[in-house]
Specification:
Homeodomain-like_sf; two-stranded antiparallel ribbon; Myb-like domain-containing protein; mainly alpha; SANT/Myb
Length: about 575
C-alpha cells in the first residue's frame, strides 16, 4: 500500500477515536462535591423517615394503643431496630401514651416490652429506652420505670398467701406464673416469693426475731464458764449454757462464749509455763476452736520478741513466713488481723504491723530517717543503696522523689520586690551604726507576724553581702589565714563573721576560694589508691568529711565526686 494512502487511513481513524472520546466525555455526568453528596444522603434519609412514619401510622392499632411494627418491617423489608431508629414522631399522628403507674400497664404490654428488651438488647444503656418507647408507644421514662418494677416487684403478703395455697394444692410454678404475669419470668416470681417468705411472720421457714442478750444473761454466761471450763472442755461449758438457755441457739451461745472466754489464754500460758514452744494445733484441740480462732483470741504479749529492720541481719525466710500466713488467712481485700499475725510469729504486734508495711514498700519518714538519708546521700550512696538501708522493699524512685521534695522544701520562698527593697533599706540605714547581728535582728522584727519572717531572716546574709561596708571589711582581712583556721578546726565561719562584723556568707566565700586554689583538679595515683583503700576497709555510708581531713589534699566534695567516677568506671563495685 502506498504511504500516502496509509497516512490518510491513519488520520481518519485518529479522528474517529477523538470524536468517540469527546462524545463520551460530554455524556459522562459531572463529579459531585462532598457537600452535594451529603445533601443527597440527607434527602434520602428524610424520604426514608417519611416512608417509615407513614407506614407506621397505617399500622397503628387503636385497640392495642401501639403500632404493629412487625407489619411495618414486613411491608418495607427493613430490620425492626432500623425502622424504630427512622421513625419520626414529629411527622406522625400517633399520640404517645403516658403510663406512669405499673397498674396502668396491661398484661400484654408488660409481656411485649419484656420480650422486646430481652430479644433485641444485650445492655440497657444509651439509646435503648428511646427505642423501647417508640416500640411500645409509651414515653421513655415510663418504660424505664415499669421495666425496673417488673424486674423486682415486691410481693404483697396477700399474694404470697395465695401462692402458698396454690403450692400446697400442688399447682406448678409455671401455672402460678401465668396467674401473676406481673413478674416477667418464673424465676422472678420465685425470687419475690422467697423474699416475702422472709418477711412473713406466719411462715414456718421465716426468720424469728432474735432477742438481745440481757446483762443478767451475760453475767450468767460468765458464771457458767467459771464453773464448767477446763482447758480441754470448752464445749462442756457450751453444753451447760445450752441447757440453761433453751431459747437461744447453740451458735449464738458459742459466739457469746467466745467473746468472754479466756480459754485460749490459759492454754497458751500453760504451754509457756511448761517450757514448751506454743503448739497452736494443740491449743486448737484443747479449747475446741479452730487454729485461726485461737490465734485471734490469744491476748498474751509477755515473752514476745522484737523485729526491727537491719539490712545485715534481715531474715527473708521470716518475712516470707509472715507474708504466706497473711495471704492464706487474710486474702485481699480482707484486712489482716495483726493480733493473729503477732501470735503466729510470736513477735510484738507493733513490729509486725511495721514490718508488714515495709514488705509492701511503705516507709515512715521520721526526722531520724530524714537525717539519715541526707547523710547517706552526702556520702555518695545511690538511691538504691539508700533504699536497701532503710527498708527491704522500698522503691529507690520513692527515695529520689523524697529527697527532691526535701530539697524543694528547704528552698526559700521568693520574696516580693517590696520585701526585698525593705530589707535593703534596713541594711543601708543601720550598717555601720550597729553590728551586723543587730541588723539581722532589726530585719527579723520588721517581718514579725508575716509569712515571710523566716525567709527574710535567712535572706539577710544574701542581701547584706554586696553592701560596700561589709565588702571592704572582708577585703581588709587576711583571707588565707582565716580559711586555714576554719579548715583546721581552730575556729568557725560564724565566729569569724562575728569578729569581723560581716555576713557569714562572705567568710564562707573566703574558704571556698581558698580551697579552689589549694586543691588541684587532677588526682594523683597515691590519692586515688587511698580512696580505694578507704572504700575497701569501710562500709557505706562513707564519711567523706572524715576522709577529706585524713587525706588533707582534697575537699569533701572532691572525694565524693571522685568516688562516683570510680564506681561508674567499675573500679569500685556497685552500680553507677
Amino acid at each position: 500500500m502506498p504511504p500516502v494512502r496509509r497516512s490518510r487511513r491513519l488520520a481518519a481513524a485518529t479522528r474517529t477515536v477523538v470524536e468517540v472520546v469527546v462524545e463520551r466525555r460530554t455524556v459522562r455526568p459531572p463529579a459531585r462535591s462532598t457537600a452535594d453528596r451529603l445533601a443527597a444522603a440527607a434527602e434520602t434519609a428524610r424520604s426514608w423517615r417519611a416512608r417509615v412514619t407513614e407506614c407506621a401510622d397505617r399500622a397503628y392499632s387503636a385497640v392495642r394503643g401501639r403500632i404493629d411494627w412487625e407489619a411495618v418491617t414486613a411491608e418495607l423489608g427493613l430490620p425492626l431496630i432500623g425502622c424504630l431508629h427512622m421513625f419520626d414522631a414529629s411527622l406522625s399522628a400517633v399520640v404517645v401514651r403516658r403510663l406512669p403507674d405499673l397498674a396502668d400497664w396491661s398484661v400484654g404490654d408488660e409481656r411485649a416490652m419484656v420480650d422486646f428488651v430481652l430479644d433485641n438488647f444485650g445492655t440497657l444503656v444509651g439509646d435503648v429506652w428511646r427505642l423501647v418507647g417508640v416500640y411500645m408507644n409509651v414515653s421513655e421514662a415510663d418504660c424505664l420505670a415499669a421495666y425496673r418494677r417488673l424486674k423486682g416487684v415486691r410481693m404483697p403478703i396477700s399474694v404470697y398467701e395465695s401462692i402458698k395455697g396454690y403450692r400446697e394444692d400442688g399447682v406448678p410454678w409455671k401455672d402460678i406464673h401465668n396467674m401473676f404475669p406481673v413478674y416477667k419470668s418464673t424465676a422472678a416470681l420465685l425470687n419475690a416469693f422467697h423474699c416475702a417468705n422472709k418477711r412473713s411472720p406466719s411462715v414456718l421457714g421465716g426468720k424469728k426475731a432474735q432477742a438481745k442478750w440481757t446483762p443478767a444473761e451475760t453475767k450468767r454466761i460468765k458464771e457458767i464458764l467459771k464453773q464448767h471450763y477446763v482447758p480441754s472442755c470448752i464445749l462442756s461449758a457450751v453444753d451447760a449454757a445450752v441447757r440453761e438457755f433453751p431459747d437461744k441457739t447453740r451458735t449464738r451461745i458459742l459466739n457469746k462464749i467466745r467473746n468472754h472466754t479466756d480459754a485460749v489464754n490459759q492454754e497458751v500460758q500453760r504451754q509457756r509455763e511448761s517450757g514448751l514452744d506454743i503448739d497452736w494445733v494443740a491449743v486448737s484441740w484443747a479449747v475446741g476452736l479452730s487454729e485461726l480462732e485461737c490465734l485471734e483470741l490469744c491476748r498474751i504479749d509477755e515473752g514476745k520478741g522484737r523485729w526491727t529492720y537491719d539490712p545485715d541481719t534481715f531474715s527473708k525466710r521470716m518475712a516470707d513466713r509472715m507474708e504466706a500466713f497473711i495471704a492464706e488467712h487474710y486474702p485481699p481485700p480482707a484486712a489482716p488481723n495483726f493480733n493473729a499475725v503477732s501470735n503466729y510469729m510470736w513477735v510484738d504486734i507493733s513490729d509486725c504491723i511495721r514490718m508488714a508495711g515495709m514488705l509492701r514498700g511503705e516507709f515512715e519518714w521520721t526526722d531520724e530517717a530524714r537525717a539519715r538519708v541526707v547523710r547517706m546521700r552526702e556520702q555518695g550512696m545511690t538511691y538504691k543503696e539508700i533504699a536497701r538501708q532503710l527498708s527491704p522493699n522500698l522503691n529507690p524512685v520513692n527515695v529520689a522523689y523524697y529527697i527532691r521534695n526535701l530539697r524543694r522544701s528547704r528552698q526559700h520562698v521568693p520574696l516580693t520586690l517590696e520585701e526585698k527593697q525593705r530589707i535593703r533599706s534596713i541594711v543601708d540605714e543601720n550598717s555601720g551604726k550597729v553590728s551586723f547581728l543587730d541588723v539581722a535582728e532589726l530585719v527579723k522584727r520588721a517581718f514579725v507576724g508575716t509569712k515571710s519572717m523566716s525567709v527574710a531572716n535567712s535572706r539577710t546574709n544574701t542581701y547584706s553581702a554586696p553592701h560596700p561596708l561589709y565588702k571592704a571589711r572582708a577585703e581588709a582581712a587576711d583571707k588565707d589565714q582565716i580559711a586555714r583556721d576554719i579548715l583546721s578546726g581552730a575556729t568557725t565561719a560564724a565566729e569569724v563573721a562575728r569578729r569581723l562584723d560581716v555576713p557569714t556568707i562572705l567568710v564562707s566565700a573566703m574558704v571556698d576560694k581558698f580551697q579552689a586554689g589549694m586543691y588541684s583538679k587532677f588526682w594523683t595515683d597515691k590519692e586515688t589508691e587511698q580512696l580505694l583503700e578507704y572504700t575497701r576497709t569501710h562500709t557505706p555510708p562513707y564519711n567523706w568529711k572524715a576522709f577529706s581531713a585524713l587525706l588533707g589534699t582534697r575537699s569533701q566534695v572532691q572525694c565524693k565526686r571522685k568516688y562516683r567516677r570510680l564506681r561508674a568506671s567499675g573500679l569500685i563495685p556497685g552500680k553507677p
